[in-house]
Amino acid sequence: MKELEDILKTKSEMPLAKKTVLNISYTSTTIKDSMLHVLKPFDISIEQFNVLRILRGQHGKPTNLQDIQDRMVSKMSNTTRLVDKLILKGFVERFICEKNRRKVDIFITEKGLKALLEIDPVIEKTEAHIASPLTQEELQTLNHLLTKLRD
């Protein structure tokens, strides 16, 4: 297990707050890279996968771009562009309401649901592998501490 100083190749001592923020950032990048690697064979990004999961959670009911954006893990994502890419792949459909042209309903397709059936086990295995060095108690503590940092 490499210490952050070894990874960053620094000999100077960092203030604990700085080390903590850098450690979280570095760990986040490492986790994201792992997820990107396992999603690559499916030709889908982490953000596109997140949109598909959000739409699946609608259980066949339509949603709109704002609702998807509100539920995204990465708030910096361009939701319109993500949905457009998923439409091109046949994973999502978009319908414009005839009575109110500003209202756009977005649904996951059968093809999108089938893709998730293939992707989900791979993601779950990767998440389990990433979390495997920690005990259940440590995972609960880590989640509590991360939530505390966000609040």
What is the mean predicted local confidence, pLDDT? 92
Strand order of the largest sheet: 1-2
Strand content: 5-15%
Q: How many strand elements?
A: 2
Report the helical percentage: 55-70%
- List the uncertain runs: none
**Main beta sheet strand tally, sense and closure:** 2 strands, antiparallel
What radius of gyration results from the CA coordinates? 19 Å
Helix/strand/pairing category: mainly alpha
How far from one another are the termini? 29 Å
Report on the structure:
- This protein has 151 residues and is mainly alpha-helical.
- Helices cover 62% and strands 7% of the residues.
- It contains 7 helices and 2 strands, in the order αααααββαα.
- The chain has helices at residues 4-8, 16-39, 46-56, 65-71, 79-88, 110-131, 136-150, and strands spanning 92-96, 104-108.
- A two-stranded antiparallel sheet has the order 1-2.
- Helix 3 (46-56) packs across helix 5 (79-88).
- The longest helix is centred in the N-terminal third of the chain and has 24 residues, at 16-39.
Supply the key terms.
151 residues; mainly alpha; two-stranded antiparallel sheet; 7 helices; 62% helix; elongated
Ordered list of secondary-structure elements with their pairings:
Elements lengths: L3 H5 L7 H24 L6 H11 L8 H7 L7 H10 L3 E5 L7 E5 L1 H22 L4 H15 L1
Antiparallel strand pairs: 1-2
Helix pairs in contact: 2-6, 3-5
In short:
With 151 residues, this protein is mostly helical. It is built from seven helices and two strands.
